[in-house]
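In this supplementary section we document a worked example of the pipeline. Step one takes a protein sequence of length 254 as its only input; no multiple sequence alignment statistics are reported here. Step two produces a three-dimensional model, which step three serialises into structure tokens for compact storage. The input and output of this example are shown verbatim.
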Amino acid sequence: MPATTTGHMRTQQTSTGNRKWKLIWADDFSNNRLDTSKWTIIPRGKSAWEKHMSADPQCYSFKDGYLYLRGINNPDTSIDKSPFLTGGIYTKGKFAFQYGKIEIRAKLECAQGAWPAMWMLAAQNKYGEYPKNGEIDIMEHLNFDSSVYQTIHSYYTLTLKQENKPPHYSTAKMNPGEFNTFGLEWYQDKIVFTVNGQSTFTYPKVNNVDPSQWPFDQPFYLLIDQQLGGSWVGNVNPHQLPVQMIVDWVKVYQ
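The serialised model returned by step three reads:
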């Protein structure tokens, strides 16, 4: 069934993966500025991942077709009390899709407390407040690890604690000193995570369980951010900053 577009959301009712992928949305950051028709700078929030988000220009730069998202020491805490500032962008309100393939090519720099992430959230509250609409973590990297986490979160995994029926995450090897391509293929019955074009982990839709196991039947938008600190990644070593995620391109297919 062909995709339909309503506003900024592009949806499909089914996706079997039997047809060839067609590029529907992309950014290669070649204009040396943020394309605000596609992206918004992520505002600060209260959760660990967003507590240092900032629009400070020092957290963003463009050079030779690359986007640099930085985590830095705050040079002036007299107005903004946050000890660190981080850069992140999302497509919220500007682009969302239901079913398809996404790939993001990036290099992840390392530091104690560095937590770069590429992930997806629901564009609408179809099932209620978080986590009922789910979260798809394409990639999260911690500190100096030579692997990334690829994870599904939902009411089913977080509230009902059904983390192993089916397993909700896995890790995948990669070289943080090089560019890698992180992605997934999203169908109506499974999400297949990838690294460098290779399948690394599959999260299936399961029958005869609580329906909150699969809220992934609605459009999701994309977030890419260089996070710092939190209980999972640990304390930040300010002497190892700045740290950055260098993004080459983002491509979405259906």
